Please model this.
Amino acid sequence: MPSPSLPASFCLFDTAIGHCAIAWNANGIVRLQLPEASESLTGARHLPEATQGEPPPSIRAAIERIGALLGGRADDLADLALDLDAISPFHRRVYEFVRTIGPGHTTTYGEVAARIDAPGSARAVGQALGENPFAPVVPCHRVLAAGGRAGGFSAARGVATKLRMLEIEKARIGEEPGLFDDVAEQANLGTAALDESMMRLALGQARLAAAKGEVPVGAVVVRDGEVLGAGFNQPIGAHDPSAHAEIMAMRAAASAIGNYRLVGCDLYVTLEPCAMCAGAIQHARIGRVVYGAADPKTGACGSVVDLFAEPRLNHHAHVYGGVMASECAALLSSFFAERRRR
Ligand SMILES: [Zn+2]
Model:
Protein backbone atom coordinates (compact mmCIF):
# COMPACT_ATOMS: atom_id res chain seq x y z
CA MET A 1 0.00 0.00 0.00
CA PRO A 2 1.67 3.29 -1.05
CA SER A 3 2.03 6.07 1.48
CA PRO A 4 -0.15 9.16 1.29
CA SER A 5 1.47 12.28 -0.10
CA LEU A 6 0.91 14.47 2.95
CA PRO A 7 1.43 13.81 6.66
CA ALA A 8 -1.65 12.13 8.07
CA SER A 9 -3.43 11.97 11.41
CA PHE A 10 -5.83 9.31 12.57
CA CYS A 11 -8.41 8.65 15.26
CA LEU A 12 -10.63 5.76 16.31
CA PHE A 13 -14.41 5.85 16.43
CA ASP A 14 -17.26 3.54 17.43
CA THR A 15 -19.97 2.31 15.09
CA ALA A 16 -22.83 -0.18 15.15
CA ILE A 17 -20.49 -2.83 13.71
CA GLY A 18 -17.52 -2.10 16.01
CA HIS A 19 -14.41 0.06 16.32
CA CYS A 20 -13.30 1.81 13.15
CA ALA A 21 -10.41 4.13 12.37
CA ILE A 22 -10.07 7.07 10.03
CA ALA A 23 -6.90 8.77 8.82
CA TRP A 24 -6.88 12.10 7.03
CA ASN A 25 -4.66 14.84 5.66
CA ALA A 26 -5.29 18.26 4.12
CA ASN A 27 -6.71 16.65 0.95
CA GLY A 28 -9.32 14.56 2.72
CA ILE A 29 -9.67 10.98 3.96
CA VAL A 30 -6.52 8.91 3.47
CA ARG A 31 -7.66 5.61 5.00
CA LEU A 32 -10.63 4.06 6.70
CA GLN A 33 -10.35 0.92 8.73
CA LEU A 34 -13.37 -1.25 9.48
CA PRO A 35 -13.46 -3.38 12.65
CA GLU A 36 -10.47 -5.56 13.36
CA ALA A 37 -10.12 -8.32 15.89
CA SER A 38 -8.65 -5.94 18.44
CA GLU A 39 -8.79 -2.21 18.87
CA SER A 40 -5.03 -1.83 19.08
CA LEU A 41 -4.74 -3.07 15.50
CA THR A 42 -7.37 -0.70 14.19
CA GLY A 43 -5.84 2.39 12.70
CA ALA A 44 -2.27 1.34 13.13
CA ARG A 45 -2.26 -1.37 10.50
CA HIS A 46 -1.89 0.60 7.29
CA LEU A 47 -0.55 3.85 8.56
CA PRO A 48 2.42 3.48 10.86
CA GLU A 49 3.52 7.00 9.86
CA ALA A 50 0.23 8.62 10.95
CA THR A 51 -0.11 10.18 14.37
CA GLN A 52 -3.22 10.08 16.49
CA GLY A 53 -4.99 13.44 16.45
CA GLU A 54 -8.14 15.44 16.97
CA PRO A 55 -10.30 15.37 13.80
CA PRO A 56 -11.13 18.72 12.14
CA PRO A 57 -14.83 19.57 11.58
CA SER A 58 -14.98 18.08 8.07
CA ILE A 59 -13.63 14.74 9.35
CA ARG A 60 -15.87 14.87 12.42
CA ALA A 61 -18.84 15.27 10.06
CA ALA A 62 -17.55 12.36 7.95
CA ILE A 63 -17.27 10.17 11.08
CA GLU A 64 -20.83 11.05 12.06
CA ARG A 65 -22.16 10.12 8.62
CA ILE A 66 -20.14 6.91 8.32
CA GLY A 67 -21.44 5.89 11.76
CA ALA A 68 -25.00 6.66 10.67
CA LEU A 69 -24.59 4.61 7.47
CA LEU A 70 -23.28 1.64 9.47
CA GLY A 71 -26.25 2.14 11.81
CA GLY A 72 -28.69 1.85 8.92
CA ARG A 73 -29.20 5.37 7.63
CA ALA A 74 -29.09 5.62 3.83
CA ASP A 75 -26.27 7.98 2.80
CA ASP A 76 -24.15 7.49 -0.32
CA LEU A 77 -21.30 9.54 1.28
CA ALA A 78 -20.56 10.58 -2.31
CA ASP A 79 -19.46 14.10 -1.39
CA LEU A 80 -16.80 13.14 1.18
CA ALA A 81 -13.33 14.19 0.03
CA LEU A 82 -10.79 11.39 -0.44
CA ASP A 83 -7.04 11.76 -0.95
CA LEU A 84 -6.49 9.70 -4.11
CA ASP A 85 -2.94 11.00 -4.75
CA ALA A 86 -1.29 7.72 -3.83
CA ILE A 87 -3.85 5.56 -5.67
CA SER A 88 -3.02 4.08 -9.09
CA PRO A 89 -5.11 5.27 -12.08
CA PHE A 90 -6.88 1.90 -12.48
CA HIS A 91 -7.78 1.68 -8.78
CA ARG A 92 -8.95 5.28 -8.93
CA ARG A 93 -11.36 4.48 -11.82
CA VAL A 94 -12.70 1.48 -9.91
CA TYR A 95 -13.20 3.47 -6.70
CA GLU A 96 -14.81 6.41 -8.48
CA PHE A 97 -17.31 4.15 -10.22
CA VAL A 98 -18.08 2.11 -7.09
CA ARG A 99 -18.87 5.34 -5.21
CA THR A 100 -21.85 5.78 -7.56
CA ILE A 101 -23.49 2.54 -6.30
CA GLY A 102 -26.03 3.71 -3.73
CA PRO A 103 -26.94 2.09 -0.40
CA GLY A 104 -29.03 -1.05 -0.79
CA HIS A 105 -27.83 -1.68 -4.36
CA THR A 106 -25.29 -4.29 -5.42
CA THR A 107 -23.36 -5.10 -8.56
CA THR A 108 -20.63 -7.54 -9.61
CA TYR A 109 -16.89 -7.26 -10.30
CA GLY A 110 -17.59 -8.04 -13.97
CA GLU A 111 -20.18 -5.29 -14.21
CA VAL A 112 -17.78 -2.75 -12.67
CA ALA A 113 -15.10 -3.80 -15.18
CA ALA A 114 -17.53 -3.31 -18.06
CA ARG A 115 -18.69 0.07 -16.75
CA ILE A 116 -15.16 1.48 -16.48
CA ASP A 117 -14.36 0.29 -20.04
CA ALA A 118 -12.08 -2.49 -18.90
CA PRO A 119 -14.09 -5.58 -19.90
CA GLY A 120 -12.47 -8.84 -18.87
CA SER A 121 -10.71 -7.27 -15.90
CA ALA A 122 -13.14 -8.49 -13.23
CA ARG A 123 -10.27 -10.08 -11.32
CA ALA A 124 -8.30 -6.81 -11.28
CA VAL A 125 -11.44 -5.02 -10.09
CA GLY A 126 -11.72 -7.61 -7.30
CA GLN A 127 -8.10 -6.98 -6.33
CA ALA A 128 -8.57 -3.21 -6.36
CA LEU A 129 -11.59 -3.53 -4.10
CA GLY A 130 -9.75 -6.00 -1.87
CA GLU A 131 -7.16 -3.26 -1.32
CA ASN A 132 -9.79 -0.54 -0.92
CA PRO A 133 -8.52 1.77 1.84
CA PHE A 134 -11.76 3.80 1.91
CA ALA A 135 -14.50 1.32 2.94
CA PRO A 136 -17.36 2.13 3.38
CA VAL A 137 -17.01 5.53 1.63
CA VAL A 138 -15.96 3.49 -1.40
CA PRO A 139 -18.66 0.88 -0.80
CA CYS A 140 -16.82 -2.27 -1.89
CA HIS A 141 -19.34 -4.27 0.15
CA ARG A 142 -21.88 -3.52 -2.58
CA VAL A 143 -19.77 -5.32 -5.19
CA LEU A 144 -20.16 -9.09 -5.20
CA ALA A 145 -18.54 -11.93 -7.12
CA ALA A 146 -20.66 -13.52 -9.84
CA GLY A 147 -23.53 -15.54 -8.35
CA GLY A 148 -23.92 -13.20 -5.40
CA ARG A 149 -20.91 -14.43 -3.41
CA ALA A 150 -19.27 -11.89 -1.14
CA GLY A 151 -15.52 -12.00 -1.75
CA GLY A 152 -12.56 -9.64 -2.02
CA PHE A 153 -12.79 -7.69 1.19
CA SER A 154 -9.74 -6.92 3.22
CA ALA A 155 -10.92 -6.28 6.80
CA ALA A 156 -9.94 -9.01 9.24
CA ARG A 157 -13.55 -10.06 9.63
CA GLY A 158 -13.86 -9.36 5.92
CA VAL A 159 -16.76 -11.30 4.51
CA ALA A 160 -18.77 -11.18 7.73
CA THR A 161 -18.31 -7.40 7.90
CA LYS A 162 -19.33 -7.04 4.27
CA LEU A 163 -22.47 -9.09 4.77
CA ARG A 164 -23.31 -7.29 8.00
CA MET A 165 -23.09 -3.96 6.18
CA LEU A 166 -25.30 -5.26 3.38
CA GLU A 167 -27.77 -6.64 5.92
CA ILE A 168 -27.98 -3.25 7.61
CA GLU A 169 -28.55 -1.48 4.30
CA LYS A 170 -31.03 -4.01 2.99
CA ALA A 171 -33.05 -3.97 6.21
CA ARG A 172 -33.41 -0.25 5.76
CA ILE A 173 -33.70 0.07 2.02
CA GLY A 174 -34.81 -3.30 0.74
CA GLU A 175 -33.34 -3.69 -2.74
CA GLU A 176 -32.68 -6.84 -4.75
CA PRO A 177 -33.90 -9.30 -2.14
CA GLY A 178 -33.26 -12.45 -4.19
CA LEU A 179 -29.55 -11.96 -4.68
CA PHE A 180 -29.09 -10.69 -1.20
CA ASP A 181 -30.98 -13.42 0.63
CA ASP A 182 -28.76 -16.01 -1.05
CA VAL A 183 -25.65 -14.25 0.16
CA ALA A 184 -26.92 -13.96 3.72
CA GLU A 185 -28.02 -17.56 3.77
CA GLN A 186 -24.64 -18.83 2.59
CA ALA A 187 -22.88 -17.05 5.42
CA ASN A 188 -25.59 -18.00 7.91
CA LEU A 189 -25.74 -14.40 9.01
CA GLY A 190 -29.24 -13.55 10.07
CA THR A 191 -29.29 -9.98 11.34
CA ALA A 192 -32.45 -9.18 9.39
CA ALA A 193 -34.06 -12.44 10.50
CA LEU A 194 -33.08 -11.77 14.12
CA ASP A 195 -34.47 -8.25 13.91
CA GLU A 196 -37.73 -9.62 12.57
CA SER A 197 -38.11 -12.23 15.25
CA MET A 198 -37.41 -9.64 17.97
CA MET A 199 -39.88 -7.26 16.35
CA ARG A 200 -42.46 -10.06 16.46
CA LEU A 201 -41.94 -10.23 20.24
CA ALA A 202 -42.43 -6.46 20.44
CA LEU A 203 -45.62 -6.85 18.37
CA GLY A 204 -46.83 -9.44 20.89
CA GLN A 205 -46.33 -6.84 23.64
CA ALA A 206 -48.22 -4.27 21.54
CA ARG A 207 -51.18 -6.66 21.33
CA LEU A 208 -51.20 -6.88 25.14
CA ALA A 209 -51.55 -3.09 25.21
CA ALA A 210 -54.46 -3.23 22.75
CA ALA A 211 -56.19 -5.86 24.88
CA LYS A 212 -56.13 -3.39 27.79
CA GLY A 213 -57.46 -0.53 25.68
CA GLU A 214 -54.07 1.20 25.48
CA VAL A 215 -52.54 2.45 22.23
CA PRO A 216 -50.79 -0.71 20.95
CA VAL A 217 -47.05 -0.16 21.13
CA GLY A 218 -44.68 -2.84 22.41
CA ALA A 219 -40.96 -3.08 23.05
CA VAL A 220 -38.25 -5.57 24.02
CA VAL A 221 -34.66 -5.07 25.15
CA VAL A 222 -32.25 -7.67 23.84
CA ARG A 223 -28.58 -8.40 24.53
CA ASP A 224 -26.67 -11.00 22.52
CA GLY A 225 -29.91 -12.49 21.29
CA GLU A 226 -31.36 -12.81 24.80
CA VAL A 227 -34.47 -10.86 25.80
CA LEU A 228 -33.71 -8.98 29.04
CA GLY A 229 -36.95 -7.05 29.31
CA ALA A 230 -40.28 -6.47 27.59
CA GLY A 231 -43.02 -3.93 28.02
CA PHE A 232 -46.07 -2.35 26.49
CA ASN A 233 -47.61 1.08 26.41
CA GLN A 234 -49.86 1.62 29.48
CA PRO A 235 -50.12 5.28 30.58
CA ILE A 236 -53.90 5.03 31.17
CA GLY A 237 -53.90 1.89 33.30
CA ALA A 238 -50.72 2.81 35.18
CA HIS A 239 -51.78 6.47 35.70
CA ASP A 240 -48.29 7.26 34.48
CA PRO A 241 -47.50 9.60 31.59
CA SER A 242 -44.06 8.00 31.26
CA ALA A 243 -45.39 4.42 30.91
CA HIS A 244 -44.49 4.09 27.24
CA ALA A 245 -43.46 0.67 25.91
CA GLU A 246 -39.78 1.59 25.65
CA ILE A 247 -39.65 2.86 29.24
CA MET A 248 -41.41 -0.26 30.55
CA ALA A 249 -39.04 -2.57 28.62
CA MET A 250 -35.92 -0.66 29.72
CA ARG A 251 -37.10 -0.67 33.37
CA ALA A 252 -37.57 -4.43 33.21
CA ALA A 253 -34.18 -4.99 31.57
CA ALA A 254 -32.33 -2.65 33.95
CA SER A 255 -33.92 -4.37 36.92
CA ALA A 256 -33.05 -7.80 35.48
CA ILE A 257 -29.34 -6.98 35.18
CA GLY A 258 -29.17 -4.66 38.21
CA ASN A 259 -27.81 -1.74 36.20
CA TYR A 260 -29.50 1.33 34.71
CA ARG A 261 -26.88 1.31 31.95
CA LEU A 262 -28.03 -1.09 29.26
CA VAL A 263 -24.66 -1.21 27.51
CA GLY A 264 -24.53 -3.57 24.55
CA CYS A 265 -28.32 -3.83 24.42
CA ASP A 266 -30.64 -3.39 21.46
CA LEU A 267 -34.13 -1.95 21.89
CA TYR A 268 -36.89 -3.08 19.53
CA VAL A 269 -40.08 -1.05 19.49
CA THR A 270 -43.06 -1.21 17.15
CA LEU A 271 -43.36 2.60 16.82
CA GLU A 272 -40.71 5.28 16.37
CA PRO A 273 -39.73 6.52 19.88
CA CYS A 274 -40.95 9.91 21.12
CA ALA A 275 -38.65 12.58 22.59
CA MET A 276 -39.11 11.31 26.16
CA CYS A 277 -38.19 7.75 25.20
CA ALA A 278 -35.31 8.91 22.99
CA GLY A 279 -33.92 10.72 26.05
CA ALA A 280 -34.29 7.63 28.23
CA ILE A 281 -32.68 5.48 25.51
CA GLN A 282 -29.69 7.83 25.52
CA HIS A 283 -29.47 7.80 29.34
CA ALA A 284 -29.56 3.99 29.29
CA ARG A 285 -26.69 3.80 26.75
CA ILE A 286 -28.73 1.55 24.46
CA GLY A 287 -26.47 0.64 21.52
CA ARG A 288 -29.03 0.14 18.81
CA VAL A 289 -32.66 1.10 18.38
CA VAL A 290 -34.80 -0.75 15.85
CA TYR A 291 -38.30 0.53 15.32
CA GLY A 292 -41.20 -0.56 13.14
CA ALA A 293 -43.59 2.15 12.00
CA ALA A 294 -42.62 5.81 11.73
CA ASP A 295 -44.59 8.26 13.88
CA PRO A 296 -45.25 11.48 11.99
CA LYS A 297 -46.88 13.04 15.10
CA THR A 298 -44.30 12.51 17.86
CA GLY A 299 -41.39 10.57 16.30
CA ALA A 300 -38.02 11.74 17.61
CA CYS A 301 -35.87 9.65 15.27
CA GLY A 302 -36.38 11.81 12.21
CA SER A 303 -40.15 12.18 11.73
CA VAL A 304 -40.65 15.31 13.87
CA VAL A 305 -37.15 15.81 15.24
CA ASP A 306 -34.06 13.59 15.13
CA LEU A 307 -32.52 13.51 18.60
CA PHE A 308 -30.07 10.83 17.43
CA ALA A 309 -28.63 13.09 14.74
CA GLU A 310 -27.74 15.82 17.25
CA PRO A 311 -23.95 15.69 17.74
CA ARG A 312 -24.14 17.87 20.89
CA LEU A 313 -26.05 15.09 22.67
CA ASN A 314 -23.53 12.49 23.75
CA HIS A 315 -25.44 9.37 22.77
CA HIS A 316 -24.40 5.88 21.83
CA ALA A 317 -27.37 4.61 19.89
CA HIS A 318 -27.58 3.78 16.22
CA VAL A 319 -31.13 3.87 14.98
CA TYR A 320 -32.94 2.30 12.14
CA GLY A 321 -36.58 1.96 11.36
CA GLY A 322 -38.94 0.21 9.04
CA VAL A 323 -38.57 -3.35 10.38
CA MET A 324 -42.00 -4.98 9.88
CA ALA A 325 -43.35 -1.44 9.53
CA SER A 326 -46.59 -2.46 7.83
CA GLU A 327 -47.51 -5.00 10.55
CA CYS A 328 -46.69 -2.46 13.29
CA ALA A 329 -48.70 0.29 11.57
CA ALA A 330 -51.64 -2.04 10.81
CA LEU A 331 -52.00 -2.89 14.49
CA LEU A 332 -52.21 0.81 15.34
CA SER A 333 -54.64 1.73 12.57
CA SER A 334 -57.00 -1.16 13.34
CA PHE A 335 -56.93 -0.16 17.02
CA PHE A 336 -57.90 3.42 16.17
CA ALA A 337 -60.51 2.28 13.61
CA GLU A 338 -62.07 0.03 16.26
CA ARG A 339 -62.08 2.83 18.80
CA ARG A 340 -63.80 5.21 16.38
CA ARG A 341 -66.55 2.64 15.77
CA ARG A 342 -67.48 2.62 19.45
ZN1 LIG B 1 -42.29 7.37 24.15
